[in-house]
Design brief:
Chain lengths: 409, 63
């Protein structure tokens, strides 16, 4: 390690932030590390919040990755939870936390994303986003109480909440403004299969419509009126309408931000400010494997990978190389595993197997394969990833699909 | 160097297979199958990548 850096500051007690801390120590960094987080708790894992935590038979509690004690003693972290960063001075290399100033030699921004606001339901009891452990525990309690559920948005979060409600045999309505679920993540031509998965599990899926009014009484939300005039009774309304980068604290910093507020970085995760990197949901980075398409990913695997890489590159810039990220997400709907590897921005999404319970689509850009989407394809999805990362011709992925079908017979 | 999988924790998400396909594979039960639990020292970096990439923290490396 070739660095005279003594003070590392990580803003965001997130997965990306934690991985940055761990990677710095693993690389032999012996200087001080300050980890600043807005939430009260030490970093915890978010995927279970909309999956295992909502199951009736799972414990209604959230454990952090490491105890605060472990972070302080084993990783030597000055942990500052429960007080968000409020400003950044890149000229004086200083993070502001309210009235406190935290000086840095190197800074990693990993503040993640915050749930989009929904003004119609602002302040109404029983209307919840699902982003934090506090949100998830409130939704869990409402499900335990058998409330009627309405979900706004048929993306990952909304669809997983709908799955949790149906697993408890609770009625659930999902309201989606687009014509199909998850269109942005998998592309419109394959989203039909997702509509089928919801409807065959008993979800009342209303697409192409929006909520126009939220009804409430003294104890909270009682129902919703939709754009088509229909009324839906509901005592629990879960918002799955996306998230935006949590970068309000960077607004006046002079750091280059995307129009959505995310932090613009190069393929090594460096910003233009000296000693400042960004990682995770907050970062817009070029994807080397996909023609340097600039994307902001909200995926577990990219947050973990980027957090660690940002720390390594910050401590030893001479060895920094463009990340070879291949986006990957998974989601569990009604007992089915959805997996997507690569990118959906393609010239063609070809459905190879249309059967909803063993669905396969492959995505072509020019003559190469850039993406694969499977339902219950745990045994084959990573085979397509190898073709994608290797810039393989589309024909190779088609041959792989044929080979897999023969093997399965 | 030994690699250990907690099968109760594993959800078959396949990131280990992505990092080192000759060592890990998602098997017919939907869990990881480890083809070589004591790989050569030269594979340490690949194995560390697999451990770090596991979204359910089901893998551990022991020296």
């Amino acid at each position: 390690m070739t660095t005279d850096l003594r003070r590392l500051v990580v803003v965001g007690a997130s997965l990306a932030g934690l991985r940055a801390v761990e990677a710095a120590r693993r690389a032999g960094f012996t200087g001080s590390i300050t980890l600043i987080g807005a939430e009260r708790s030490a970093p915890y894992d978010r995927p279970p919040l909309s999956k295992a935590l909502l199951r009736a038979d799972a414990p209604a509690s959230v454990s952090p990755f490491h105890t605060e004690e472990h972070l302080r003693t084993e990783l030597g972290v000055d942990l500052r939870c429960g007080a968000p960063a409020t400003g950044l001075d890149i000229d004086h290399r200083r993070v502001l936390v309210g009235a406190d100033r935290v000086d840095y030699d190197g800074l990693i921004i990993a503040t993640g994303a915050a749930a989009n606001a929904w003004p119609l339901g602002a302040g109404v009891p029983g209307v919840h986003p699902l982003r934090t452990a506090v949100d998830a525990l409130a939704i869990r309690a409402a499900l335990d109480a058998g409330k009627r559920v309405a979900v706004i948005g048929a993306g990952f979060i909304g669809s997983e909440v709908a799955s949790a409600a149906r697993a408890r045999d609770l009625p659930v309505t999902v309201i989606e403004a687009a014509p199909q679920p998850l269109t942005r993540s998998v592309g419109p031509s394959v989203a039909d299969v997702l509509t089928g998965l919801h409807r065959s599990a008993g979800v009342d899926l209303r697409v192409g419509t929006q909520v126009t009014e939220v009804h409430q009484n003294a104890s909270g939300v009682t129902g919703l009126t939709l754009g088509d005039g229909n009324y839906l009774p509901a005592e629990l309304v879960v918002l799955g309408i996306g998230a935006r980068p949590a970068t309000g604290w960077l607004r006046d910093s002079g750091l280059a931000l995307h129009r959505d507020g995310g932090v613009l970085v190069d393929a090594t995760l460096a910003t233009r400010a000296p000693g400042v990197y960004a990682a995770g949901d907050v970062a817009h980075a070029p994807l080397s494997v996909f023609d340097d398409e600039v994307v902001r990913l909200e995926h577990w695997t990219s947050a973990a990978e980027q957090g660690a890489a940002a720390a390594r590159h910050l401590l030893d810039p001479d060895t920094a190389r463009p990340l070879q990220t291949v986006p990957y997400f998974w989601s569990d709907w009604h007992g089915h595993r959805l997996q997507f590897v690569g990118v959906p921005t393609a010239d063609e999404a070809r459905v190879i197997r249309p059967e909803p319970e063993q669905f396969l689509a492959l995505y072509r850009r020019g003559d190469r394969v850039v993406g694969a989407f499977t339902v219950n394809g745990q045994r084959e999805i990573m085979r397509y990833r190898r073709h994608i990362v290797g810039h393989a011709p589309f024909e190779d992925a088609l041959a792989e699909a044929g080979a897999h079908d023969r093997a399965a017979v | 160097m030994r690699i250990v999988a907690d099968i109760g924790q594993c959800e078959g998400l396949g990131m280990c297979e992505a990092m080192a396909p000759d060592i890990f594979e998602v098997g017919p039960e939907g869990h990881v199958v480890i083809h070589d639990a004591s790989p050569d020292e030269s594979r340490r970096q690949d194995l560390q990548a697999a451990v770090d990439a596991c979204p359910v923290l089901a893998l551990t490396m022991q020296d």
